[in-house]
């Protein structure tokens, strides 16, 4: 099982759902558009990384050939999807404002696109990467794994009972999470050992 890929898709879905109210469906594969966006986003991010090693990438971009032609196709797919999200949201907000007698505002779609992509870049890879390394550390240190499990059970008052995902999620209140100090320390130490952003790049 490629846990890193599952975490990447999960965090991408979460960002779009929480931030923009869009069900991307990249984890379940239920949305073709969402899956195409996720692939294009990954491909564009990977190509940006390769630019560090390709001395001729600017010439390729100028001529729109080879890897830079693929990069342009990926960026076009990303833009099409994000602009569609923006258009739907603007239409929804305009309807809501007209219903309550307010005037629709003016939006710069390119600016909104940049904000959305910044959210995705900042929250997706960093969160998924940190969680993947955290799971790696737990798998190598069973005593840490057991201590975290005990702390979570105590904080959520689930004890030794086997609870379902819905009940467990409901028990993860802000108060319960604030009592998970060892878990917080373990996550922080994981970030120290394996930084979420070892290098910074953008497209």
From TrEMBL:
Coiled coil ranges: none
One Pfam family in the UniProt entry: p450
GO molecular function, one term: heme binding
Gene3D superfamilies in UniProt: Cytochrome P450
Protein name: Cytochrome P450
Family as reported in the entry's similarity comment: Belongs to the cytochrome P450 family.
Keywords: Iron, Metal-binding, Oxidoreductase
């Amino acid at each position: 099982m490629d846990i890193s890929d599952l975490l990447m898709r999960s965090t991408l879905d979460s960002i779009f759902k929480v931030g923009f109210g869009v069900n991307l469906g990249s984890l379940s594969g239920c949305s073709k558009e969402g899956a195409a966006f996720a692939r294009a986003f990954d491909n564009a991010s990977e190509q940006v990384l390769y630019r560090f090693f390709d001395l001729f990438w600017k010439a390729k971009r100028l001529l729109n050939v080879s890897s830079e032609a693929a990069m342009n196709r990926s960026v076009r797919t990303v833009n099409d999807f994000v602009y569609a999200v923006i258009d739907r949201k603007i239409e929804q907000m305009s309807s809501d404002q007209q219903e309550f007698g307010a005037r629709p505002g003016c939006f710069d779609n390119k600016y909104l696109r940049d904000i959305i992509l910044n959210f995705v870049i900042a929250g997706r890879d960093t969160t998924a990467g940190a969680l993947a390394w955290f799971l790696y550390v737990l798998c190598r240190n069973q005593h840490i794994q057991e201590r975290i499990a005990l702390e979570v059970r105590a904080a959520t008052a689930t004890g030794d009972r086997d609870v379902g995902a819905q009940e467990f999620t409901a028990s993860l209140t802000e108060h319960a999470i604030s009592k998970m100090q060892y878990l917080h320390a373990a996550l922080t130490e994981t970030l120290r050992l394996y930084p979420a952003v070892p290098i910074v790049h953008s497209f």
